[in-house]
Amino acid sequence: MVSCFSGYKKMKAFIAVLFICISCAVYSYTPSTGDIKPDDPRLMEGMKLFKANCGACHKVDAKLVGPALANVWERWESEEKLIAWIKNSSAVIASGDPYANKIFNEYGKSVMTAFPSLTNEQILSIIDYTRAKTADPNFGNPPGTGSTTPQGATAKPNNSLWYIVAGFLLVLALGLIAVTRKLDDLVKEKEGEPIDNRPLLQKIFTRRVKSALILLAILAFGANIMKGAIGLGRSQGYKPEQPIKFSHALHAGQNKIDCQYCHSGAEKSRHAVIPSVNVCMNCHKYVSQGPKYGKKEIAKIYKYSGWDPTTGTFANQPKPIEWVKVHNLPDHVYFNHSQHVKVGGIECQTCHGNIQEMEEVQQFAPLSMGWCINCHRQTEVKFSENKYYSIFDKYHDDIKSGKKDKVTVEDIGGAECQKCHY
Amino acid sequence: MAKLNKILVVTVLATLLLTSCFRDYRKPGREYMPDMAHSTAYDASTLNPVFKDGVTNQKAPEGSIGRGKYVYPIPNTPEGYELAATAITNPFTFTAEEIKGDGKKLYNRNCAICHGEQGDGQGHLPSIDKFPPPPSYFGDALMSLPDGKRYHSVMYGKGMMGSYASQLDHRERWLVLSYVKSMQLAKGGTTAPTAVADTTN
Fold it and tell me: Is A22 within the bounds of a domain?
């Protein structure tokens, strides 16, 4: 019994030692770069923690707000110091550690967020993730999202199929006409009727057909002159070349950035506002490569804004970007964006077309007076919701008595000359 | 017959020559009475020969304050960030409707693209791996961040975030911050939105 008991005790001690050994082994476990298993749960955990806590300021392979994390474990004197730094960097700086103070001064004395809630185990898994990411820059990326493949690029609808079908049908029609003519001739020959032996062109272009064609050509000529005269000064379809190949299809379409993120004046002023270059730099300090033109077009923003991507500072002389205005109203017409966007609640696309699909911006609407007036006649005003219109007593009475079911822009003076021309 | 042929050829050619297929969409097209169409005054964002740098939208002279404009008194330095924690408080009192209405609208327009509509840091751009994800508003660090530091960050940017001083005005910045705070309160945040009656700044 005694020996059995002592055996049990020994067993217990052995298990305890084994447990400690295993935990130590796990604690000091560092995967060599040779055998990264992409689905290692520990690395996955590290990746998740990295994205949630570190990714806002650090990248593995490049400097962001803070330094690049590749080889960070070599730069620190010991792993304990690094863990202490992550948990509370201010304390490590205060302790007088030379490397901590060096890096603090190097990065403009901005304090790294403290992460006291991360356990040592979690911090080590993050470090393991950065090791894996150093060894394989594509580690953890979803398959097919390498830097060379543009993300979310949508295939353009293919029109060539329709041309092929149309061409095929045309050939078929001509062939059938030839066959029926031949059959007609055969029938005529059999019945002894005279056969028309003139060449095909002469058969088609009879005097009557020619006269009709001339009339048609004169009409088309007149219609063209009319169309040209009406289109004078309207520039519908105008698509000027811009100094930077900025794509609305990419920014507003794929990236789903709100129109008014950049055109912040649309609700506040007459102008929707061409964004100043600092708005571009909100994202492009980080995004230095586009899916279509690579670094070429974004390098232009850096040149205009004076940004030096190697040092990460606005070191050079900035210069305004000379964008070409697409939508030009004549000077004798007054237009105000805020009235339409804020008060009227009109969508940008109503007048500008499907901007989120345009690679290059093109004038969508004719911007003619008829087009303006037509919309003012048809568009219903948010009449009862807007306190500004409370003074229109007659219309409110008419709506109450059922005489009127809606109030249009024209009703409240939207077709008066002086509204836009003064 | 030959005469008819000639007329046909001439009219068809004339029509073809005049068709608008030849329009170059890189150019604005023709116009009449350009003196009535083009402004003699310099419009915003047009070239201006009067100023040395050729820009019509000039910056206000240094030291001048626009009417009704707010001047943020703290410089963009790490010390300034710490100072903002105590020196800057919300001078506005917003109604719940304002916060849920305009506050939410401004947040979704300017912030949600990265911070996420839920404030979890999983906006559209981080989710398609185009921009690093910002920290969630509901972590320990941001949950208890003083109002002044938040305003300082919107004003000058913080980390990867750029400055929003040019897109949001003084009132809008506090409105957006109040909306963020309302999201945090809904998730168990303890700090009530600070409303100080002092409107001198």
Answer: no
